[in-house]
Design brief:
- A hairpin with a 2-residue loop joins β5 and β6.
- The longest helix is centred in the first third of the chain and has 13 residues.
- This protein has about 130 residues and is an alpha+beta fold.
- It has a four-stranded mixed sheet with strand order 4-2-5-6, covered by helices on one side. Strands 1-3 form a two-stranded antiparallel ribbon.
- It has one domain: Alpha-Beta Complex (Phosphoribosyl-aminoimidazole Synthetase, Chain A, domain 2).
């Protein structure tokens, strides 16, 4: 298990695979993101997958246990899903969305903090006409 705090889900998944000495294949469309999170991230011009995700836990388990874990979390009102798999290290870190493969790269810098300090200064997001 690994939390997805700094650098969000992308950072957390990358770090989990790296710590295990494995690769990973993740399907972006399968990652549950609440609508309110998407709206807030849009207001501040940040990517919800790269941004601080306190309260998000990334769990790796044996494939035959995944459904049981998702069911147990769901029964407690916790949103979850199976979003990918750990792979042999030579397969690398792979992210898929819209039918295409992309390298999963660690964000290194969390966009939350820049947005946070911009908001404190009363500055609009980049590209905003506010």
């Amino acid at each position: 298990m690994h939390d997805a705090t700094e650098c969000g889900v992308w950072g957390g998944i990358y770090e989990l695979a790296q710590a295990a000495g494995l690769g990973v294949r993740v399907e972006k469309e399968k990652i549950p993101v609440e609508e309110k999170v998407e709206k807030i991230c849009d207001i501040f011009g940040i990517d919800p997958y790269k941004s601080i995700s306190e309260g998000t836990l990334i769990i790796s388990c044996k494939e035959d246990r995944a459904a049981d874990i998702v069911n147990a979390l769901t029964s407690e009102g916790i949103i979850s899903g199976v979003v990918g798999e750990l792979t042999p290290p030579e397969e690398g870190m792979v992210l898929t969305w819209e039918g295409r493969e992309h390298p999963l790269v660690h964000p290194r810098v969390d966009p939350f903090w820049q947005a946070f300090y911009q908001a404190l200064r009363g500055e609009p997001k980049r590209g905003s006409s506010v």
